[in-house]
Design a protein that fits this description.
Blueprint lengths: L11 E6 L2 E10 L6 H18 L3 E11 L5 H17 L3 E9 L4 E10 L15 E4 L5 H9 L5 H12 L3 H7 L4 E6 L4 H13 L2 E4 L10 H6 L5 H10 L3 E3 L5 H6 L9 E5 L1 H13 L5 E7 L4 E4 L1
Parallel strand pairs: 3-4, 8-12, 9-12
Antiparallel strand pairs: 1-2, 2-5, 3-5, 6-10, 6-11, 7-10, 8-11
Helix pairs in contact: 1-2, 3-4
Length: about 300
């Protein structure tokens, strides 16, 4: 066992021999959008992302389903079809799954992937001087919360849905070609929460530049209206103890950095000599990647600049 409970990361990794290691992960959740097909696709992309965050390639997935008894089965079919299409796009196969009856629909995957044992990208490798790249915009939490409240525009929902459905496949593949020292995907703990996980595992400090952060269309608008999901406050309460805020942001801005993400991008800690080229390659592949800050040798934590 190369990665497990002893060194928490995005997935477990088990080595078979000198050239093969298996990645195993699982993730599922209730609907974040109204369209069943899109929900299935988003949930699948989110589950697959943990394999990509380790620098791996998905091989096989098992459906994890909870569905109300007597509910419209066409909805379930659409959810599963959305998940199957994304798994196929990842180059993997769905080999079965398990279903239980529940009051609220839930969907996700148990995913198996592969990676060379020498090429695993963990949270613990960030080095002082590294530049930080994020491969997707932020703000899925406030936008999907606005949707639940009936306050989100169709245009904003379309943008964020397409973003959440996008695989992190390209980012993971390019990460193997460059000196990416540490990597994780940004999901429910927010940029600050998952960024702190890298900082703590690597015993470094991250400096995040607020003005460099990119947001999905509508995210800042809903944030200013304080349309925050419950996870925002929980993230702020827990992770603020490791955050130094030099900006004196307005309340809503300070909450935005704790916005829980669904199927977010990859946060990469990259050798400074290769960061510009990696960013250019990501953008040329259609990935909306951007610099968010850098890594310094200092007390473990995050500084917001």
């Amino acid at each position: 066992m190369l990665v497990g409970l002893g060194s928490p990361d995005d997935s477990a990794v088990y080595q078979f021999d000198a050239s093969r290691a298996i990645i195993q992960t699982a993730d599922f959740f209730p609907p974040v959008v109204d369209d069943p097909y899109a929900f299935g696709a988003i949930a699948a992309a989110n589950a697959l992302s943990d394999v990509y965050a380790m620098g791996g390639k998905p091989i096989m997935a098992m459906n994890l389903v909870a569905f109300p008894d007597g509910h419209d089965m066409q909805i379930l079919q659409d959810i599963l079809r959305g998940g199957a299409d994304i798994v196929k796009q990842a180059g993997a196969v769905i080999a079965g799954g398990h279903t239980v009856v529940d009051k609220e629909p839930k969907y996700g995957l148990s995913v198996m992937g592969e990676v060379h044992p020498d090429h695993i990208i963990r949270k613990s490798g960030a080095q002082p001087g590294d530049k930080l790249i994020l491969t997707k915009p932020l703000g899925t939490g406030v936008i999907t919360t606005a949707l639940k409240r009936g306050e989100a525009s169709d245009e904003h929902i379309e943008h964020v849905t397409q973003g959440m459905m996008q695989l992190n496949r390209v980012g993971a593949e390019l990460a193997q070609r460059y000196q990416v020292h540490a990597m994780t995907d940004i999901t429910g703990y927010s940029l600050i929460g998952h960024g702190y996980e890298i900082a703590e595992a690597s015993q470094v400090r991250m400096r995040i530049h607020f003005d460099q952060l990119q947001w999905y269309p509508g995210a800042m608008e809903y944030g200013q209206a304080e349309v925050f999901p419950g996870g925002t406050g929980r993230n702020a309460v827990h992770f603020s103890q490791w955050l130094t805020d030099t900006r004196n942001l307005d309340f809503w801005q300070s909450q935005m950095i704790f916005d829980p993400q669904t199927s977010g991008g990859l946060l990469m800690s990259v050798d400074p000599a290769e960061a510009d080229t990696l960013l250019a390659d990501l953008i040329s592949e259609g990935i909306q990647a951007f610099f968010v800050g850098d890594v310094v040798a200092d007390e473990v934590g995050i500084t917001l600049l």
